[in-house]
Design brief:
The chain is an alpha/beta fold. It is built from 14 helices and 7 strands. A 7-stranded mixed sheet has the order 3-2-1-4-5-7-6, with helices on both faces.
Length: 336
């Protein structure tokens, strides 16, 4: 779930860049965390403002090459870490002046077209889908998980209504041959009874596998929790999502902590009068017509953001319980 989707020309296009900059206000200075560095679009723009510092993260080691080039120009104001954004709490940022944390949950053009990553059903690459720092691949999942587990992955992570038939045919086919990208696409084509000629038949299954392999549900949830912890009072937490499942998680997290009283284990209950967040805009910000015309994949992007109202590190949230079923499905991978 990292870095922005870009058009077919090999050009980095950070989605909703103007809107992000408007929301986080780097002109006032401070330290910002770019949780999905990708090709550095957000980080480069933030560093144009002289009183800023950026801590950039990305699980994809390929991003380190771009990050190292940027380091030459901004050595004293910028660091890059090849870690998952769920590990924000390992950076020891409790005492840092964090004014903004940004997540962009799309994929870059270079990631989608990299045959080694195997993210795309038409890339002709490996059935891999690992974005970095993974424990297993899509090939492992497809060839080792049982029928019910595959069906649940397709249904809950891809909203694939015919996941039952696809899973059943995968099990039948793998008794004869190990399944690769090409054969998986063929199985999906044969299994789909209802054809959608506007969207490739394999789209939903491949989305589901990407989410599963990269544990994108728990990654996002823990990323949000830890981002909320390290932010200082009046700091901004901003997230760009690209599909409904991501948006549902972000929307719930923001809304629940804007409406329910936030509780810190270290502060007396009598002093806990405020919510953790202030929800500035209830509706998501979407790209302009001009941006969509220039970069068609941005049409599915949604930006949501909140401001932190109180300055404490630990708080309670029920988000893990709210999405417990999805995390349980993710955990099928623990036996791979």
């Amino acid at each position: 779930m990292e870095a922005t989707i870009v058009p077919k020309v090999q050009k980095h296009y950070p989605v909703l860049l103007k809107e992000i900059i408007s929301v986080i206000s780097p002109q006032h200075g401070g330290t910002f965390i770019d949780c999905t560095f990708g090709q550095g679009g957000y980080t480069k723009k933030i560093l144009e403002f002289k009183n800023t510092n950026v801590i950039a993260l990305d699980r994809d080691i390929e991003s380190a090459k771009i990050a190292n080039q940027l380091k030459e120009n901004f050595e004293d104001r910028y660091i890059f870490k090849n870690i998952k954004f769920s590990q924000l709490n390992n950076l020891k940022l409790k005492n840092e002046n964090i004014r903004g944390v940004i997540f962009d949950l799309g994929y870059s053009y270079t990631q989608i077209k990299d045959p080694q990553k195997g993210l795309s059903f038409d890339a002709g690459g490996k059935l891999n889908m690992q974005l970095g720092l993974n424990s297993y691949s899509a090939e492992d999942a497809i060839n080792k998980l049982n029928e019910k587990e595959l069906e649940k992955i397709f249904k809950f992570f891809g909203d694939e209504k015919e996941g039952k038939y696809i899973a059943r045919n995968i099990i039948k086919e793998r008794l004869k041959n190990k399944i690769d990208t090409k054969s998986l696409v063929e199985i999906i084509d044969k299994s789909k009874r209802r054809k959608n000629f506007k969207v490739h038949n394999a789209t939903k299954v491949f989305q589901a596998l990407r989410i599963f392999v990269n544990k994108e549900i728990s990654e996002l949830i823990f990323g949000l929790i830890n981002a909320a912890k390290v932010l200082k009072k009046d700091g901004i937490l901003a997230v760009v999502t690209f599909h409904s499942l991501e948006d549902k998680i972000v929307k719930y997290f923001f809304k629940s902590l804007s409406e329910k009283k936030s509780i810190s284990r270290y502060v007396p209950v009598t002093e806990q009068a405020e919510n953790l967040f202030k929800l500035i805009e209830k509706k998501a910000i979407i790209p302009s017509d001009q941006e969509i015309n220039e970069n068609l994949p941005s049409r599915s992007a949604k930006l949501r953001y909140v401001k932190k109202k109180i300055d404490f590190y630990d708080f309670e949230t029920d988000i893990l319980n709210q999405f417990k079923k999805l995390i349980e499905i993710e955990n099928f991978g623990d036996k791979l």
